Amino acid sequence: MTEQLFHVAAAPFESARRVAILPEGHRARRLHGHSFLAKVRARLPQDWGGFRGAESGALLESLAGAVEALDYRDLNELLPVPTDENLARWLRDRLDVPGVASIGVQSTSEQGADLDDGEDRVHVWRRFRFEAAHRLPNVPEGHQCGRMHGHGFEVILHADQSLAGADMGIDFDRLAALWAPLQAELHHACLNEIPGLENPTSEMLSRWIWERLTPRLPALSWVTVYETATAGCHYDGEHYRIWKEQRFESALRLELAPEGDSRRRLHGHSYLLRLHLTAPLDAVLGWTVDYGDVKRLFDPVYRRLDHHRLDGLHGLSAADPGSLALWIREAALGGLPQLDRIDLHETPGCGASLCWGELGPALPS
Ligand SMILES: Nc1nc2c(c(=O)[nH]1)N=C([C@H](O)[C@H](O)COP(=O)(O)OP(=O)(O)OP(=O)(O)O)CN2
Questions:
Q1: Staple partner for 294: which of 4, 169, 188, 244, CB 3.0–4.6 Å?
Q2: 122 pairs with which residues across the strands?
Q3: Record: fold of 1-119
Q4: Are strands 350-355 and 339-347 parallel, antiparallel or unpaired?
Q5: Which residue minimizes the CA distance to atom 9 of ligand 1?
Q6: With 80 as the cut, is the pLDDT of residue 119 above it?
Q7: Is 228's C-beta closer than 6 angstroms to any atom of ligand 1?
Q8: What is the whole-number distance in angstroms between the Cα of residue 197 and the centre of ligand 1?
Q9: The whole model's pTM is what?
Q10: DSSP states of 4-57 as a string?
Q11: Distance 312 CA to ligand 1 centre (A)
Q12: Which residue out of 7, 145, 345, 355 is catalytically annotated?
């Protein structure tokens, strides 16, 4: 798979709906409301938005413009069956953006649906949380994860399906029902005591969940395990892709912005950087690459980004998220050869996603 640079944007809307196609007695048949979030990922032509570096800002503007018509509305007045899938379709039909690769709507931070452009396929996801203790028995002497400790783990179940014109894919409640027995086993447990989880790394846990659920949910496409708020693992039955997130606080100006554009002024962002690495499992350690090692090996690059002025970085053509992601890859790849995707958001949900290697982006966010 060749390099792919996407721009991403996210825009919220507050609306009410009834989903009458759900079974009798389902709570979502009643009028209710959500803080929705619409998300788009697009392969934009360079300079789209007027100048090099304007792409992600212009994408956000287009998405926010399309979403405006949904905000503070009774959604049933706009479309007869306002499922997350149909809302994403509605936005896809109205969004005047080239190269859209995926468009999604989440009705809460726990669940949503993403559509692939041009295909009637949906990626439905739902998030769960459990509180558990664990220790990693095979880590080197003195490693913090060798001590008994605990986490508020989060799991996302992802299902990919053909919609074939249907109003919705798998019901979020069906994902919850499939998850319930695992929740009973994992919540308030010490993971090391559960058969098959004697070495409960995120990687082993995601595989353990996958093996339990895939016979009952053939559409299961990925299992995501968040071990902490900043690190976790995705597993699809074959590949382990871990990520580590960091934030940095930096200044920039977009010198190609036209006269009068506020982005020509020196300004700043609290950036979110997510480094993804795909690698085989170490048979003894039960992980791919230690999250701590990812952070340590990235540190020399991090120090060049955090609390600095980015438009002064040597070798950087422009200080927009796409150019920065390319710069970060060149600077980090020597130390982290397993790196195959970089997400860089300059505001929440908005920025760039650069991927290369066999897996491509793999997941919408
Ligand atoms: N590839 C893996 N690496 C690590 C795992 C794992 O399951 N797979 N687990 C751990 C520890 O259990 C640890 O609790 C979490 O790791 P880490 O992100 O390093 O912890 P911090 O929250 O302390 O990180 P900071 O960003 O430095 O605060 C370790 N590695």
A1: 244
A2: 115, 161
A3: Tetrahydropterin Synthase; Chain A (3.30.479)
A4: antiparallel
A5: 201
A6: no
A7: yes
A8: 17
A9: 0.95
A10: EEEEEEEEEEEEEE--TTS-TT-GGGS-EEEEEEEEEEE-PPTTTTSSTT-HHH
A11: 32
A12: 145
The CA-atom distances, in angstroms, between 127 and each of 12, 124, 254 are: 19, 11, 37
Is 234 touching ligand 1 by the criterion CB < 6 Å?
A: no
pLDDT confidence of residue 1: 55
* Residue of 142, 154, 147, 272 lying closest to 202 (CA atoms): 154
CA of 116 to the centre of ligand 1 (A): 32
- Would you say 123 and 114 are in contact if contact means Cβ atoms under 8 Å apart? yes
C-alpha–C-alpha distance, residues 333 and 350, integer Å: 24
Residue 312 CB burial class (10 angstroms; 0-12, 13-18, ≥19): exposed
271 DSSP β-pair partners: 248
Q: Determine whether 245 is an active site residue.
A: no
How far, in Å, is the centroid of ligand 1 from the Cα of 193? Answer: 20
Whether ligand 1 lies within 6 angstroms of the CB of 230 is answered as yes
Q: Is 188 a catalytic residue?
A: yes
Percent of the chain beyond pLDDT 70? Answer: 100
User: Cβ distance 59 to 49 under 8 Å?
Assistant: yes
Task: Give the domain ranges of the chain.
Answer: 1-119
The active-site residue, picked from 158, 227, 269, 355, is 227
Q: Which two tokens stand for residue 278?
A: 């795909």
Strands (E) located in 100-148: 100-108, 111-116, 121-134
Evaluate: CB of 231 within 6 angstroms of ligand 1: yes
Q: Provide φ and ψ at 136, rounded to 5°.
A: -100, 110
pLDDT single digits (tens) 66-95: 999 999 999 999 999 999 999 999 999 999
Q: Helix H segments across 46-171? A: 55-68, 84-94
Length of the chain: 365
pLDDT in tens, 22-43: 999 999 999 999 999 999 999 9
